[in-house]
Amino acid sequence: MKKNIKWGIIGVGKIAEKFATDLKSVKNAQLHAVASSSSLERAQDFANRYNAPFAYDSYENIFQTPDLDAIYIATPHTSHADNTLLCLKHKIPVLCEKPFAMNLKQVQEMVESARKNDTFLMEAMWTRFIPAINKTLELIKEGAIGQVRNIQADFGFNAPFLPEKRLLNPNLGGGALLDIGIYPAYLSLLILGYPSEVKAISNFGSTGIDETTSFILDFKNEATANLSCTLRSRTRTEALIYGEKGYIHIEGRFMEAKKITLYVTDQKPVKFNFPRKTFGYNFEIEEVNECLRAGKKESDKMPLTMSVKLISLLDEIREKAGIFYDGID
Question: Domain 5-126+281-297 is classified in which CATH homologous superfamily?
Fold first, then answer.
């Protein structure tokens, strides 16, 4: 029988709610402990709703939990590095929400700590484990659309003006690029690799964060990617991958897609459907669980080298677009 993986969660916001909900659908896994820095009452309420036996009012105290196998970090971006390093110091495997950290320096420190402590670490880029994305990669590898020449992807929604909340708060790492632009950036990195040239421009809001960022990536004059993200309007949030023989349409929202369509010149379109009842976080949970059972220290599908490349790309886009964070950059 497979080992039952007992999870802890640091941070009890909206994304933690989705993670905990999907965790219920994963076999041989359970929520074991939660920690909130705001209050014990909030942690206990979360624990009660998701049947976790342990709740704490500080992140440090969660390491008192017996038989804790892994921790999911669901705090604001600016806390990811510190929270991850704390877990790794206690040699507890970590799944840290994206973006992994605020910049390359922080990510490098996290990676070094994971290797020094011989402890599992993975960025929670759930998109990598979504079946529709895996099928897209399979079709590209098979040569279904020929050599990829262009990727177009967007992510946008109309964010309410709540300047004290994370999304619009620069002190919490807010802004369109790090929160949602990371998905188009990751998709291009996954399919085309690291670009040879980056061009980017942002429009900034009254709180100082980038509300809209558009970026064009060139890949050694062999392919391009036209990508964008915005907090000012709802977009189709889809992806189109164009090759020499056809293209693949990943329906919105592409980062968690349930449907893709293959269009090949002079052939009927082929649709692929991947229905599910979960939000989609269960797939990354299952990946971590299998890695832990196998004794791995990182995922083959989302290795630490990919997280280093991703944050490097985000840093470069930020530099070109003029996106800076006081006290961090």
Answer: NAD(P)-binding Rossmann-like Domain (3.40.50.720)
Instruction: Report which residue type is found at 253.
Output: R
Determine if the peptide bond prior to 253 is cis (ω within 30°). Answer: yes
141-178 pLDDT, tens digit per residue, is: 999 999 999 999 999 999 999 988 889 999 999 999 99
Spatial separation of the C-alpha atoms in residues 227 and 207, rounded to whole Å:
24
Is residue 129 within 8 Å of 170, Cβ to Cβ?
Answer: no
Taking the C-alpha atoms of residue 99 and residue 311, their distance in angstroms, rounded to an integer, is 8
Q: Where are the beta strands (DSSP E) in the chain?
A: 5-10, 29-35, 54-56, 70-73, 94-97, 121-124, 148-156, 197-204, 210-219, 223-230, 239-243, 246-250, 259-264, 270-273
pLDDT tens across 282-301, in order?
999 999 999 999 999 999 99
Cα separation of 226 and 93, whole Å? 36
CA 15 distance to own-chain centroid: 11
pLDDT band at residue 226, thresholds of 50, 70 and 90?
very high
CATH number, domain 128-277+311-321: 3.30.360.10
pTM: 0.96
Domain(s) labelled CATH 3.30.360.10 in the chain stretch across 128-277+311-321
Closest-CA residue to 138 (of 237, 207, 241): 241
H or E element, residue 191: helix 182-192
Take residue 150 and report the two structure tokens written for it: 């262009």
